[in-house]
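Expect chain and fold; thus:
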Amino acid sequence: MLRSIPEHWIERLFARMESIYGARFQDFWRGVSDPADVKAVWREGLAGQSDEALRRGVAALFHERHPPTLPRFLELCAPQPAMYTRNDPALTDDRRTSPGEAREQLARIREMASALLREHGAPVGGGIRWAHRLLQRAENGEHITAHQIGFAKSAIESYGRTHGRNENGHQREPGSDDE
């Protein structure tokens, strides 16, 4: 058996919609001969909705531009599908790592990443592997335009300035010279 909606609840719902939409709400129902019939149909249509669903529908009214029809209000009462709800991960571990330990961990991560890249035959060059592959294709006799070769060489030079070895021969990391 469906849960019936009390008349006073429908009266409050219509009063709420009139407060939200004002003259648009009154215009929406202007041609209705008997408002009591409309409210009776809404009572019947909302039968079986849980209190939570009805609250969800009323809360959603604030985001609707126009007064809803009964079918639209029922849509507003429906819960949002789980695939559209946000599920942001919460980071709860607030332990800190010393700079030395962080450098060691980053070095291990780089070693593992390099090993994976070598294992799968990835070309050298970090974030500019595309440039090395392009030059390799040109060396193998494939038709590569002069513009493409110029872009590849420029990318390799730029990458070398920011990721390569500096004039003292030290390996450079992006941001390592920031003050």
Remarks:
- DSSP finds eight helices and no strands in the chain.
- The chain has a mean pLDDT of 81.
